[in-house]
Design brief:
It contains three helices and four strands; from the N terminus they run H-H-H-E-E-E-E. Helix content is about 50%, strand content about 15%. A hairpin with a 2-residue loop joins strand 2 and strand 3 (about 130).
Length: about 140
């Protein structure tokens, strides 16, 4: 009688690390949304502008634009747990802060157009808008920080 060979399924460490990292990223994203929301309530746009302008980009090596898109996807998943639907300014400011924490040199851009009047805020990495569903080329840039 042969002994049955028991094979254990190896745990995939990289999957566990990635899941843990994503959970931390989501919690951080929610915290940043709350921070931007409170800053907007207490200090208005100037306070948010000052907060983002002073937020440093951590040095964690060069991350590609693909990483910026992945970070945007992570942020979109985190927003589903937020208590209200954030405006484009809230979302963009918090996403810029999150990306800078992870070493991605993101910029907050605020623009407007005259006819029909509309204002919008978005995130750029390397001059490329991240996670935008509508084209931003029709907006005149008012502020980049």
């Amino acid at each position: 009688m042969q002994a049955q060979r028991v094979t254990e399924r190896p745990t995939n460490v990289s999957t566990a690390v990635r899941a843990s990292s994503e959970s931390i990223g989501r919690i951080l994203a929610l915290g940043l949304l709350i921070t931007v929301d409170m800053t907007m309530k207490l200090r208005r746009f100037k306070g948010v502008q000052r907060l983002i302008a002073r937020w440093p980009t951590r040095q964690r090596g060069k991350l590609s634009e693909l990483d910026a898109d992945s970070m945007n996807d992570l942020f979109d998943r985190a927003i589903t747990w937020y208590v209200k639907r954030p405006t484009c300014l809230h979302r963009s400011a918090a996403l810029v802060a999150l990306m800078r924490i992870y070493g991605i040199p993101a910029r907050l851009v605020v623009g407007a157009r005259r006819i029909p009047f509309d204002a919008h805020a978005w995130v750029e990495v390397g001059g490329r808008p991240i996670g935008e569903k509508k084209p931003v080329i029709h907006y005149n840039v008012l502020e980049r920080c």
